[in-house]
Amino acid sequence: MRICVFCGSSAGNNPVYREAAIELGTALAKAGIGLVYGGAQVGLMGAVADAAMAAGGEVIGVIPRQLVERELAHDGLTELKEVGSMHERKAVMADLSDGFIALPGGVGTFEELFEVWTWGQLGHHQKPCALLNVGGYYDKLVTFLNHATTEGFMKQPYREMLIVASDVESVLAKVEAYEAPKVAKWMGKKREL
């Protein structure tokens, strides 16, 4: 089994984010779960990878060629895959993974998580997608997602597809127990004009 971790190439301002990245990398390795991530040696990306490697885990990095120098590609991984584009990076990471967890990060992290979550809603995969809401980092996003559901732009089963947990033990337990909902997104709907 492999889990893809989306996270920042920065460490953020709160030390709790880096601590969680280290804890997650260590926990994945100790559970015999491989790590797939964005391939950098800096920020939370480097922290999660270094921790998994230090604990004896398999770590596969996937990085676009144009980011190899800018994000300082990690040279101590089990495997580093260089790809041609960000689109290819996401596709390769998704193909290699059995689930997805987002640590704190910026726009790239959000975009990666939202894309794989959308793929799940559309039935392209049955894999769990999760937010590791360390230190309340994603609290306002979760509030907004609940608002989008209340306002009718997201069905409750799709909102529930996104796992939210505040600690590593809980997020891994929820990812392991995940069952994809059986909802037909547009079946039986009349076309609105």
UniProtKB/TrEMBL annotation:
<protein>
    <recommendedName>
        <fullName>Cytokinin riboside 5'-monophosphate phosphoribohydrolase</fullName>
    </recommendedName>
</protein>
<dbReference type="InterPro" id="IPR005269">
    <property type="entry name" value="LOG"/>
</dbReference>
<dbReference type="GO" id="GO:0016799">
    <property type="term" value="F:hydrolase activity, hydrolyzing N-glycosyl compounds"/>
</dbReference>
<dbReference type="Pfam" id="PF03641">
    <property type="entry name" value="Lysine_decarbox"/>
</dbReference>
<dbReference type="GO" id="GO:0009691">
    <property type="term" value="P:cytokinin biosynthetic process"/>
</dbReference>
<dbReference type="GO" id="GO:0005829">
    <property type="term" value="C:cytosol"/>
</dbReference>
<dbReference type="InterPro" id="IPR031100">
    <property type="entry name" value="LOG_fam"/>
</dbReference>
